[in-house]
Amino acid sequence: MSEHPFAAGIPAATRLPSERWRIERGIFAVLSVLTLAVVAAGPLVLDTYSVSVLIRSFLYGVIAVTVDILWGYTGILSFGQSVFFGIGAYALGLASTHLDFTSPIALGAFVAGPVVAAAAALLVAWLGFGPRVSPLYISVITLVQAVIFVQLIYTGGDYTGSSSGLSGFDTFDVGMESWFRIAGAGLVIITALAWVFMRSDVGRLLIAIRENEQRCSYCGIGTARVKTLLLVSSAIVTAFAGFAYAAFNDVVAPDLGNFQFGTELLIWVALGGRGTLIGPVIAAVLIDFVSAYLSGSLPFVWQLFIGLLFIVVIVLMPQGLGPALTNGMLRRRAKAVMVAPRLTLLPDPVVGDAARGPVIEITDLSKRYGSLTVLTGVTFGASPGELVSLVGPNGAGKTTLIRCISDGLERTSGTVKIGGKSIGRMSPEGCVRLGLGRKFQAPNVFDALSVADSLRIARAQQEPLSAWRSSDEVRLPAAAMRVVVATGLDQQLGTTVRHLSHGSKQALELAMVLAMEPRVLLLDEPTAGLTKAERAAIGAILVDLVRDHGLCILLIEHDLDFVRDISSRIIVLHQGGIVIDGNVTEVTTSELVRSIYSGEPGAVTP
Amino acid sequence: MTSLFLDIVTTAAILYVVATGLLIVFGVLKIINFAHGSFLTIGGYAALVVTQLGLSPWAGPPLALLAGFVLGAVVEMLIVRPLYNRPLDAILATWGLSIVVVQLITIGFGRGTNFVVSPVKGAVVVLGTEYSLYRLLMIVVALVLGGVLVTIMQGTRLGLVARAVIMNEALAQSLGINSARVRFITFSIGSGLAALAGALITPLLSVDPLMGVPWLLNAFMLVLVSGTSLLSLLLACVVLGGAQVVVSTYGNPVFGALTIVVLAAILLRIRPAGFARV
User: Fold this and answer.
1) Distance of CA A270 to the CA centre of its chain
2) Interface contact A141-B83, CB threshold 8 A
3) Among partner residues A77, A132, A308, which is closest to B88 by beta-carbon distance?
4) CATH topology assigned to domain A358-597
5) Above pLDDT 70, what percent of chain A?
6) Which one, of B96, B73, B84, lies nearest residue B31 by Cα?
7) How many CB atoms lie within 10 A of CB B261?
8) Which of A352, A375, A568, A587 is deepest in the core (most CB within 10 A)?
């Protein structure tokens, strides 16, 4: 592999995802069936008190699964998952207290709780996942949600039972042993479904959102929609658990939906191991079960212990107790076999008439920050088969221009058209869907995913991800395939991106952008930090992409020699405006350009 | 009307005293200290101990300040420092700490509600309305506290260094500023101020192990809408605290308790910078 200027890929024994899936599924199915058998037999061996406590613990385990998917996998830190549990519980409590407990009423409450929870989740998601909202805001809004829930229950007075809640209402005539089996089976099934889901291609996407939401948007993925769907589904599942809680315990209280309980859920997930599913479930069930036993004898000491343990785990083993313990035990196990799908080349798309005329048109674009004008009156267009370099000294507005082209909210005025369609105020994912691809200056990739998964996520617009299986194939268009093969990434498909060299990460990001089959490619210093050999390789690829695949490339570059070698046209930006737009000879022989680069800022006014 | 005005001003003053410690920690360390409420509780219990020992009630606040400062220093070294690059984990770990504090206090003092002797009693007539002298005193305290902090930030070397760290920590470090020490001192001061606030508000309220939680939530929201500016915080306290007083007086006290949190959440959605740089 030494002919690759990038990394010498060491081809390891690789296994297809479906082969690993078959093995894992077997183990997991056996475990699930065993657990179900244990749950079924539980009431026969456990005393009544343990059975009644475990029913609650199992339901808490269900919420822990939802919190782990939201927080552990997707990175949505919610302090208010408890609220959905409270809503589900109060749906039954209120219905049964104020109405006759008949089958239609019970069914109504069974449906109403999750519906209200879903509506609440939708509102929270709308507030928390909006454009330009800080990532901390969802945590703030879920915290507020929990405070509001409790205050609403207080305001309800006798109707909601205020601070003491409701109890002694009519509920289902189901024995404790059956409840135990229902809750236990529910927990096993939810965990199994979540397990399958998280191992699917969509599961990888959730990790990608946690790792780098910006890159996801620039792969054309509506991350806000994905997160909203996730939050709403988790709210529905949690509300069902809350309904079961109220039905079995015959009591509901504001504590079920408060911020302290919401935080306790986070503690369980963190202790059990974020992003492991099984860890949080075990932690939730175990801690709640032991809490119930110790609440009589040493309640405060136990809480103190959990608090201390939580601090120690967060500080010293952020991955959680579960992974810390199992890794310790399994340390001597041989290194796992690399799992990677195979690459398939897509047939070349038919280039039709669309290839004629400018594919990107920028008219009178300007960008101001308050009184500071960064760009003004920028107008140009570019056609397929053109490689246009944007050059200019630092602060000329090059990167700002790229930002204004790829995010509709950025520019102050002017229009940007991609493939003849105006981007308006579109989000980055909207611009990407019009045919834009953007590669950032510093490698902007998914550190925790494998090379193959990253490429597949970049293709998510063209080939929807599966929510229940891990595909055996990554299909790439010729341009992306070229980059992958030329840089040796094809030998590293199963490698976690974190372990790639800087050059390979740059190449991977370029391949991901090309995998989206853009018509316009925006490249911000694609050769920054690369060696001379890597730089030449990238340059050759770019020239080929333009010539063979009819791509239109806008390139920002400081290295004028590199620009001269590969460009078909050069645009010089200075002090926020275009000073020259011409072919390579025109620009490189220009006195104007020389004076700009020799540092005479007064010499030119655009 | 006068009484409503005084309520608004004194409420804003109390909120300011409670939230400043959290604000300076957020400004310099860029982490939210969820143990802020428990430092406040510790301050409340410091005042309670002073009362139980029969000491002068004036000894409460200084003792609380000292206790908060020392405990804050220990917490910074053990918990906050290792989490400096993981701000969300720092929120969780400091919340874990607050659970520990609540349990320790419960074990030491019981779950019950206690009362503290106020250093000043009675009421004075202001603009024709009789008003609690202690609440009026809180205005003075808030002004003095704000004045001292502004003087430190603008007039001392520590303040200069802290401002440098707030603006650009990497640059400050490369200029030879020991930002770890700045963080350490700031966290200790912030914790001390939280405890001080706890001791100062207890004569108005009762003392119990969970007294810090509602204050934490309000202070958290106020800091989020204020960014890192002491002046924005003052504005936020007056506007949101004022709204709280108005809602509690003319509307429903339960909704009054929600006012700050809800208004701040809405404000942050519309304008992520909140009151900062208005």
Assistant:
1) 19
2) no
3) A77
4) Rossmann fold (3.40.50)
5) 93
6) B84
7) 24
8) A375
d(C-alpha A240, C-alpha A196), whole Å: 21
Amino acid (one-letter) located at A395? G
Strand residues in A371-519 grouped as ranges (E): 372-382, 387-391, 413-418, 421-422, 436-439, 473-476
Instruction: Provide the shortest C-alpha distance from residue A274 to chain B (in Å).
Output: 12
Top residue of A315, A321, A369 to mutate, by most chain B CBs within 10 Å, is A315
Instruction: Say yes or no to pLDDT of A249 above 60.
Output: yes
- pLDDT category of residue A335 using cuts at 50, 70 and 90: low
Contact A310 B272 (CB under 8 A): no
Quote ipTM for the complex: 0.90
A143 Cβ neighbours under 8 A, 6+ residues apart: A79, A80, A259, A262, B217, B220
H or E stretch at B123: strand B123-126
Its CATH architecture, for the domain A14-260, is Orthogonal Bundle (1.10)
Interacting residues of A464 by C-beta distance below 8 A, sequence separation 6+: none
Tokens of B109: 């003092």
Return the pLDDT at A603. 46
Q: Please answer whether residues A165 and A154 qualify as being in contact, where contact means their C-beta atoms are separated by less than 8 angstroms.
A: no
How far is residue B49's CA from residue B62's CA, in Å, rounded to a whole number? 13
Where are chain A's structural domains?
14-260, 358-597
Q: A232, A247, A239: which is closest to A182 by C-alpha?
A: A247
Contact by Cβ (8 Å): A243, A110: yes
CB B149 within 8 A of CB B20: yes
Q: Which residues of A touch B (CB under 8 A)?
A: 77, 127, 130, 132-134, 136-137, 139-141, 143-144, 147-148, 151, 154-155, 259-260, 263, 266-267, 270, 300-301, 303-304, 306-308, 310-311, 314-316, 318
A155–B103 C-beta distance less than 8 A: no
Q: Is B159 exposed, middle or buried (0-12, 13-18, 19+ CB in 10 A)?
A: middle
**A352-393 pLDDT, tens per residue?**
545 567 889 999 999 988 888 889 889 999 999 899 999 888
Both tokens of A110, joined, read 């069974």
Per DSSP bridges, beta strands A14-15 and A436-439 are unpaired
User: How far, rounded to the nearest angstrom, does the alpha carbon of residue A223 sit from its chain's CA centroid?
Assistant: 7
Residue A534: count of CB within 10 angstroms of its CB: 21
Q: How many CA atoms lie within 13 A of B89 on its CB side?
A: 24
Tell me the C-alpha distance between A269 and A449, whole Å. 22
**pLDDT tens column, A453-493:** 999 999 998 888 888 888 888 889 988 898 898 888 888 88
A87 touches A116 (CB < 8 A): yes
Give the CA-trace dihedral at A78, A83, A89, A91, to 10 degrees. -130
The CA distance from A472 to A340, in Å, is: 8
CB–CB contact A301 B107 (8 Å): yes
Question: Both tokens of residue A59?
Answer: 């339901």
Task: Tabulate helix, strand, coil % of chain B (nearest 5).
Answer: 75, 5, 20
The dihedral of CA B125, B129, B134, B139: what is its sign?
negative
- Among candidates B89, B265, B272 on the partner chain, residue whose Cβ is nearest the Cβ of A144: B265
pLDDT tens-digit readout, B22-76? 999 998 888 899 999 999 999 999 999 998 898 888 888 999 999 999 999 999 9
Model confidence pLDDT, tens digit, residues A19-38: 887 888 888 889 889 999 98
Answer whether residue A415 shows pLDDT above 80. Answer: yes
Collapsing DSSP states into helix, strand and coil, what is residue A387?
A: strand
d(C-alpha B151, C-alpha B143), whole Å:
12
CA distance A275 to chain B (A): 15
